[in-house]
Design brief:
Layout (H helix, E strand, L loop, with lengths): L1 E4 H11 L12 H16 L5 E4 L7 H5 L15 H13 L4 E2 L6 H14 L4 E4 L13 E4 L6 E2 L1 H8 L6 H8 L14 H11 L2 H6 L7 H9 L1 H11 L21 H10 L3 H6 L22 E4 L3 H14 L1 E8 L9 E9 L2 E6 L16 H13 L4 E4 L2 H9 L8 E3 H9 L7 H9 L6 H5 L13 H28 L3 H8 L2 H11 L1 E3 L1 H26 L8 H11 L17 H9 L3 H25 L7 E2 L2 E3 L9 E3 L11 H7 L2 E2 L4 E8 L2 H9 L3 H9 L3 H10 L8 H15 L4 H8 L3 H14 L1 H17 L1 E3 L5 E3 L8 H37 L5 E6 L2 E7 L3 H13 L10 E6 L2 H4 L1
Parallel strand pairs: 1-2, 1-4, 2-3, 4-5, 7-10, 8-11, 11-12
Antiparallel strand pairs: 5-6, 8-9, 9-10, 13-14, 13-17, 15-16, 18-22, 18-23, 19-20, 21-22
Helix pairs in contact: 1-2, 2-4, 2-18, 7-8, 7-11, 14-15, 16-22, 17-20, 18-20, 23-26, 25-26, 28-35, 30-31, 30-33, 32-33, 33-34, 34-35, 35-36
């Protein structure tokens, strides 16, 4: 008999998983977590009887005994309320009894059914981690954690409470329970309660012999609150004599109605769960009620000899796929030393090959294969084109192993599979995906290596702990691959993965490894220059303020602006401090206040100094003399790449300071930098997808699109046009892509809101197709929860059906922009994938070293510069066919600023 504490798990799943909504906006994260857990239990259990128990209502017989029982608990979160009914619906969809009884808690029903089942000769497993249910543990009755699957028995209860399951009621009666508002005895905690029970035997003896207690205060408290303790015992004691709504026989495991299961999962948009189902083939009858294939229990091996490693390699080659994960000493692959490598062949079948573990004194631990020998044995496998290598963020492993002359191919990446399937709907790290798709809580790095100052690098982790952590990473990666890869086909997203994301991995790995040369002396000189300017700005700001203050303190700045200076528009947040973000300061500056404008200047300069001129010098790799950024593929919901350590995509383009920083990025001697930038690609995509004839004609004729828009909207000739008019048209053109409002345009142009609104109305009047596109796109987003790019990428939008109008409006603006920005991201990815092979065929030695939004930067031998420009322009312009041409702006120089 398996008895599931449904009510307890709902809350646990809700707080454990990130927010999720189905297309109609209904929150479903708790439903998803619960359904995953239920499927796992049905798949892995051999139970004859199975039921899920729920609380019927908050008021039970315990409230009659003690009205304050659980009275302090807040109402459930608004996002959880609609999920209660859906969880019960999920239970019924899997043909599992869903049982509740008014006046009683789920725990009482569990206690009653456990007694009845034992009386009928059954073993009982209670699926819950609730401490109140631990009083039921006895021979034949165990508990199981619903998330980890770990059994909870007598020894676990004793470790947690200091008493056995038979004394949990007495212990809780003394200690009370703040979560349920059970009073207990004031001043008696769990530890003290356990000591008293250990000394006197049970609650009745503790109370009867309270006069014998040596501590005066404790003695008197027990005497004074004896009735509270007895009342508390009745509150925590579970009833095992509840009239059961369903007889024991009706809890027998039932066959699944597969149509019913699939219909429920489809209604919740749980497509990944549908892919897990072991559906019977046409004409076959399901032989089992299990909703998915069984998986093995973990069996991990520490590989310490070449003979055992050869056996794993042979099995991997025989089956044609293997999950791979490396363990190193650093997050940055350019600075990391390889410590070990793990392989997984099947769920629960994984190994860890330690290579460079040392003891506390730095001496190499015995029982490890020499790194050179192990890698020589692994290299043919990892480079074998007939064996698929599966990884989680496998780009990192590729870079680590490339340092040892191993080029991993072919590959699959579970992080990118998840990213293509879910985009910005949730994160794509291994821990989150394991919880989301497998209901499994992984071992964390801090669990094996420590945290804070006590944390050690992985080479100093003991081998037994290293095995559990490293082998699990490969094992979970393989399991995720089995879950996610089939969904690509059912969701028709295989093309996005196969042609955009997966082939980009080796391209990015090569770019990261190549890195970019920086002029450290130029950066140091800039730091000194910026420091001097910051000091001058600080002095000017203090003079304007009439007193010194910490410019970097939002609190002090807010008090100065809105209290001391009395400026209008101050708004305090939850902390009681005034908001002093850039939007607030920009508004004040637009109103003519000098001090906020100078603070904005100070902030920008301080950020440039700390982020670039100071940090970049420190980020030069001593092995290569270059800066190696890391490109993140699975972050932006639109498909755009981002870069970290350092972030090279946020250097200002239009400011003098930003241009000076770009001058620090230089070509190696004998080479130049070539910049190739897509011109107005997002506007071109808007003209294409919205099918705006006038814009398409202007682009095809090579006209000044902003001047043409100004002429069309404001009715002025292009010849002799006032530059201010063109600037307004440019602001509208680009603003429309981001769903700009009249308020936003007014602030950007420094004009009244009514005038900005009139400009936008005139724009839509001239180009009604753009408004149609915007409304169509928002409707698609509301219906599906996502919008799609020209190339089929799905951009998921959190909050598109949110009840909060501000949240919903933000999501709608994102929906308008996502197909445009996402389409541009897809186009440059296609170019990046195509170019390395094209350059190799042309015999060119130029290398792609940077990608920043719509721009690619190459390092090219001087003699090849012109040919390289021609090839890059031709290939980048032809990677996508739109109604209008793609145009490239190129430049060549000895540093990035000159080339740009």
């Amino acid at each position: 008999m398996i008895l599931v504490d449904g009510s307890g798990f709902i809350f646990r799943a809700f707080h454990k998983l990130p927010p999720m909504t189905r297309p109609d906006g209904t929150p479903v994260n708790a439903v998803y977590g619960y359904t995953t857990m239920l499927m796992k239990l049905l798949r892995e259990s051999a139970a004859d009887h199975f039921a899920v128990l729920f609380d019927a209502a908050r008021r039970t017989f315990r409230n009659d005994l003690y009205p304050a029982y659980k009275a302090h608990r807040p109402d459930p979160p608004e996002e959880l309320i609609p999920q209660f009914a859906l969880v019960r619906e999920a239970t019924r969809a899997f043909n599992v009894p869903s049982i509740e009884s008014p006046g009683f808690e789920a725990d009482d029903l569990i206690a009653t059914y456990a007694r009845l089942a034992q009386a009928a000769g059954a073993d009982v497993t209670i699926v819950s981690a609730d401490k109140d249910l631990m009083q039921l543990i006895r021979p034949g009755v165990v508990m199981q954690d619903p998330v980890t699957g770990r059994p909870i028995g007598d020894a676990d209860v004793r470790e947690k409470f200091g008493v056995g399951p038979d004394r949990v009621i007495d212990l809780l009666a003394l200690a009370g329970d703040t979560a349920d508002n059970v009073p207990g005895v004031p001043g008696i905690g769990v530890k003290t309660a356990a000591q008293l029970i250990g000394e006197f035997g049970d609650l009745d003896q503790v109370l009867a012999r309270a006069a014998e207690i040596k501590q005066p205060k404790r003695r008197q408290t027990l005497i004074d609150h004896a009735d509270d303790a007895r009342l508390s015992r009745e509150l925590v004691r579970l009833r095992d004599d509840v009239p059961v709504p369903e007889p024991l026989s009706s809890l027998a495991v039932r066959a699944l109605d597969w149509d019913q299961v699939v219909a429920f999962l489809q209604a919740q948009a749980f497509r990944s769960l549908i892919a897990r189902l072991d559906l019977p083939k046409a004409g076959e009858k399901a032989a089992t009620a299990n909703p998915a294939a069984r998986t093995e229990e973990p069996g991990y091996e520490l590989v310490r000899s070449l003979g055992r490693l050869d056996d794993w390699i042979m099995r991997a080659r025989a089956q044609g796929f293997v999950a791979v994960d490396t363990e190193t000493t650093a997050i940055d692959p350019a600075r990391a030393d390889l410590v070990g490598l793990s392989l997984a062949l099947a769920p629960g079948t994984a190994c860890y090959v330690p290579l460079a573990h040392v003891d506390a004194d730095g001496a190499r631990l015995a029982g490890q294969i020499a790194r050179e020998q192990a890698l020589a044995a692994l290299k043919p496998l990892l480079e074998d084109p007939a064996v698929l290598k599966i990884g989680q963020n496998i780009k990192y492993d590729m870079r680590v192993l490339a340092a040892h002359d191993i080029q991993i191919t072919p590959i699959d990446d579970t992080m990118l599979l998840s990213y293509v399937l879910a985009g910005g709907a949730h994160g794509h790290g291994l821990d989150e995906l394991a919880q989301l798709h497998l209901g499994h809580t992984t071992i964390k790095f801090a669990d094996v290596a420590g945290s804070g100052k006590a944390q050690v690098t992985f080479d100093r982790v003991p081998l037994d702990r290293a095995l559990a952590y490293a082998a699990e990473d490969a094992d979970i990666t393989l399991r995720l691959h089995r879950e996610l890869q089939p969904v690509l086909l059912t969701e028709r997203l295989a093309t996005v993965y196969e042609t955009l994301e997966r082939p980009l991995v080796p391209v990015l790995a090569a770019m990261e490894s190549e890195g970019v040369l920086v002029d450290a002396d130029h950066l140091r000189a800039l730091s000194e220059e910026f420091a001097g300017r910051l000091a001058a700005l600080e002095a000017e700001i203090h003079q304007l303020a009439g007193r010194p203050f910490n410019i970097a303190s939002p609190k002090q700045l807010g008090e100065l602006l809105f209290d001391a200076m009395g400026l209008a528009g101050g708004k305090k947040g939850k902390t009681g401090a005034y908001a002093t973000g850039a939007d607030v300061l920009e508004q004040l500056a637009a109103e003519g206040h000098v001090l906020p404008a100078r603070v904005l200047d100070w902030r920008q300069l301080a950020k440039l100094k700390s982020t670039y001129t100071d940090a970049l010098v420190q980020q030069v790799n001593p092995r290569t003399g270059r800066v190696h950024t890391s490109y993140q593929q699975a972050v932006a919901s639109t498909g755009r790449l981002s870069s970290t350590d350092p972030n090279l995509q946020n250097i200002p383009v239009r400011t003098e300071e930003g241009r000076k920083i770009r001058r620090a990025f230089i070509a190696a001697p004998g080479s130049v930098l070539l910049s190739a930038d897509y011109s107005q690609i997002e506007l071109r995509l808007l003209a294409h997808v919205a099918d705006i004839g006038a814009l398409k004609q202007a682009f095809s004729r090579g006209e000044d699109i902003h001047a043409m828009t100004a002429s069309q909207v404001f009715g002025v000739p292009v010849e002799g046009m006032d530059p201010l008019i063109r600037r307004k048209a440019k602001a509208i053109n680009f603003g429309i892509i981001y769903g700009i409002s009249a308020f936003g345009l007014a602030r950007q142009l420094g004009i009244p809101r009514s005038e900005a609104g009139a400009y936008i109305d005139a724009y839509f009047s001239r180009y009604p197709g753009i408004r149609d596109y915007m409304e169509r796109t928002k409707a698609e987003a509301r219906a599906n929860g996502y919008v799609s790019t020209l190339f089929g990428r799905r951009c998921y939008l959190r909050g598109i059906n949110d009840k909060n109008q501000a949240v919903r409006n933000f999501a709608e603006r994102a929906a308008i922009n996502a197909p445009i920005q996402g389409g541009a991201a897809d186009i440059i990815k296609r170019a990046m994938i195509r170019l390395p092979a094209v350059l190799a065929r042309a015999g060119l030695k130029g290398r792609m070293i940077l990608q920043v939004h719509d721009e690619l930067v190459f390092e090219v031998p001087v003699a090849e510069a012109d040919e390289m420009r021609a090839v890059a322009t031709r290939e980048m312009a032809s990677v996508a066919w739109l109604d209008i041409p793609l145009v490239l702006e190129t430049g060549i120089g000895y540093n990035w600023e000159e080339a740009h």
